[in-house]
Amino acid sequence: MKLSCTQEKLNQGLSKVSHVVKKDATLPILSNILFETKEGRLKLSATDLEIGVRCNILGKIEKEGTLTLPADIITSYVNSLPESRVNLETTDQILHLKCESFEANIKGLPSKEFPIIPEVKTEPLTKIPTDLFIPSLNQIIFAAAQEESRPEISGVSFNFKKNLLVLAATDSYRLAEKRVKLESEVKGGKSIIIPIRTAQELVRILSEEVGDVLVSVSENQILFHFNEVDMTSRLIEGQYPKYQEIIPHEFKTRVVLDTNLFLDTIKTVSLFSREAASDIKMELDPSKEEITISAETSQVGKSESKIKTKIEGEKNSINFNYRYVLEGLSVITSPQVIFEMTTDSAPAVLKPADSKDYIYIVMPIKQ
Hints:
Blueprint: E1 2-6, H1 7-18, E2 32-38, E3 41-47, E4 51-58, E5 60-63, E6 66-70, H2 71-80, E7 85-91, E8 94-99, E9 102-107, E10 126-129, H3 130-138, E11 155-170, E12 174-195, H4 196-206, E13 212-217, E14 221-226, E15 229-234, E16 253-258, H5 259-269, E17 279-285, E18 290-297, E19 301-308, E20 311-313, E21 316-321, H6 322-330, E22 336-341, E23 348-352, E24 358-362
Antiparallel strand pairs: 1-5, 1-7, 2-3, 2-6, 3-4, 4-15, 7-8, 8-9, 10-13, 11-12, 12-24, 13-14, 14-15, 16-20, 16-22, 17-18, 17-21, 18-19, 22-23, 23-24
Helix pairs in contact: 1-2, 3-4, 5-6
């Protein structure tokens, strides 16, 4: 293999694929990135056997070949190089790299040991603009369960309904749902679950990109294609919980609040609940047109703050895990947020005041 390309392009490509690399002493090849030249491009590939990422880089190819290289070394080294032309050439299992006054010889492993990344050859199901898709994922992925004891909720639900994609995530203590309008109709619909790490990698790789993401689905794999990047992931088997049944459709108390004020108030008060507990108390009094938010621990003391606002419905109170409320509020971009509740033991709702495409539900802490 012999080629040259710019340091900028090589560095960008390595950054896109390197995060899925797995440091596995039992299978050292998973710690490597596959370099291969094909059709006038340098193709970089990495996998952890669950997610596979490929990235094509334009370059001047003089001789084709393949080699796998340790991800941590090649990524860090290229990142440190000046923005200039990088020359790469392999001899046996060694990469000779040169850029201006910098030279290095990096030992690799044979490419024949590198796992095959599954291909999804079905036609794209739909396409979604990145500036819509990535912010939508950001609004729900934090609510997914982190442990794998219940695989169905340790992922993100993708439910394609005609010209609508419904994204959902839950850990059974809170639920986030986002509705994304699609440009074209998905015939027959499709309901799948992707691993949370896949969603997180999509956000990382595509957060600053502009364009359309093509989504293709096979029996047990999903492919996200964007320009010169392909991400393949296994799907989680099983049925996603029928969470629609827990979404409240009525309320006894409702208030519209300034999102930032609500967020900042909870942040401040929650300083007094972080050492021994994680709950805050909200008391809503329509007669006083006042919300009282408080937290108290024996180790720290007590904090209380009041927000003056009109409240619809009856007097009510509820206790929350402050982290859950903060995480939900922090992804609501609307200037105003709607808060709805029924009783101190039933789930409460947060949603933007100017949109019906997002809802966040959080369970209370029972006293």
